[in-house]
Specification:
single chain; 5-stranded parallel β-sheet; alpha/beta; 8-stranded mixed β-sheet; 13 helices; TIM Barrel; globular
Length: 430
């Protein structure tokens, strides 16, 4: 494996929460040393030398909660297309969801998707498995066997386990094995059929809506069960200000709890739906501006630990429907980094805090060694220009599905190159 040296780069260190100007050397797929040019420590190069020309070098993104539609719906997304999209978006590790057809709820299915991912994707792929069989919430899966087969976490995705006894037993079993359980904090009764967040906008548009309280109610229940069982728990999407006090209490009480949010809920709000634009229909629905700002502040403070794309491919037929009937979800593997730059340029979250949420924290929560900019860490890196402007054109996306809400939007921040174990998997054509 060829040694690699990056010179003249701004280095983002999410552990130290700082950006320095310097150089990074790579050997045998790992970071050998990080140099600060101001200290005059860097004395030479070995192997291939890349002049960063003042651009930014950071750990590759670890995207927690990516839907790849194998098995069952390869026409929406395959491991090959998702892997190419991830590489182009600076994502070096994708954590895949089990909401496939059939659900990934057995070691055999898990081994199939792992084999397919290793064959087709140029980036690391780590799969999650279903918490209950068929994601039906009635009978828990064999968590121990699935962990042996490589599952990094367990989740029923956007389906809530409504049977409290089943959920508590699953949490207890997971705790005994040290497994991480990921849940969707949304009261299923209140949110059933909802296409928007309740308020003036939804009323004027005549859309069925759900109160932000549905998120807090579900989170309160889950926190009580976590306190009862002692399980490791992660809330996949916290999107409302009302849920933040419950999350803060849980952490203050010493519960093993983390939380995430999606890049769309950080950068868009309910008004973006405008004239029933179905690419903006998400689950949970987009929130009011005050919720968006509160969640961004929670990411900045560290209360919310993870930012993910919540990449959910949908074909044209499922989106070209009336807003209420259209499928929820948007693709975001390629737009995660440039969308995050909106938060940086708006002064809401700085670059080290963004990378803490998009790379370091998800890797730590899943027990992965990546996401760090330090000697000995895997050389999974992204080189990018945070200031490069461009007009998003969904026809250029590498995903099979192109349901992005950013189509036609002016964006700032381009991925220049992506490296996995020190090997280039994407380089932007100049």
């Amino acid at each position: 494996m060829t040694d690699l040296t990056f010179t003249n780069v701004h280095v983002i260190d999410p552990e130290a929460q700082k950006v320095t100007f310097g150089a990074v050397t790579i050997s045998s797929g790992k970071i050998r040393q990080v140099f600060d040019n101001k200290e005059n420590q860097f004395r030479g190069e070995t192997g291939r030398v890349i002049d960063g020309a003042g651009k930014y070098l950071a750990p590759g993104l670890v995207d927690l909660g990516v839907k790849v539609c194998e098995p069952g719906e390869r026409h929406k997304e395959s491991y090959r297309s998702a892997g190419r999209a991830a590489a182009a978006g600076g994502v070096t590790t994708i954590i895949t969801r089990p909401d496939t057809t059939p659900a990934i709820d057995s070691p055999e299915t898990l081994e199939f998707v792992t084999r397919r991912a290793n064959e087709a994707a140029p980036v690391h792929v780590r799969p999650m498995a279903a918490l209950t069989k068929g994601r039906k919430g009635a009978e828990m899966t064999e968590i121990g066997f699935l962990m042996d087969a490589g599952a990094v976490a367990f989740t029923d995705c956007d389906r809530v386990v409504t049977n409290t006894k089943v959920f508590s037993r699953a949490l207890t079993y997971a705790r005994s094995l040290g497994a991480l359980v990921i849940a969707h904090p949304q009261d299923p009764g209140l949110s059933a059929g909802a296409a928007a967040t309740s308020g003036k906008f939804a009323s004027l548009r005549g859309l069925p809506a759900v109160s932000p309280m549905a998120e807090r109610m579900a989170l309160d229940r889950d926190m009580a069960l976590v306190e009862m069982t002692g399980a490791r728990y992660h809330a996949d999407q916290i999107t409302t200000a009302r849920a933040l006090p419950a999350l803060e209490r849980a952490k203050a009480n010493g519960l093993d709890v983390t939380a995430g949010t999606s890049i769309h809920h950080l950068t868009l709000n309910a008004l973006d739906v405008a004239d029933y634009r179905t690419f903006f229909k998400l689950k949970p629905p987009l929130r009011d501006e005050q919720d968006r700002l509160a969640v961004a502040e929670a990411v900045k403070s560290g209360l919310i630990d993870v930012i993910s794309s919540m990449h959910t491919p949908q074909d044209e037929e499922s989106k070209r429907l009336p807003f209420e009937e259209a499928a929820s979800g948007a693709v975001a593997l390629e737009t995660l980094l440039p969308a995050a730059m909106r938060l940086y340029h708006a002064g809401l979250i700085d670059l080290p805090a963004l990378w803490r949420a998009m790379s370091l924290n998800p890797a730590r929560r899943l027990g992965l060694d990546t996401g760090r900019m330090a000697a000995g860490a895997p050389a999974d890196l992204v080189l990018f220009d945070p200031d490069a402007p461009f007009l998003m054109d969904r026809s250029t996306l590498r995903s099979k599905s192109r349901n992005t809400p950013f189509d036609g939007a002016r964006m700032q921040g381009r991925v220049l190159a992506t490296y996995v174990a020190g090997v280039s998997v994407y380089e932007r054509a100049t």
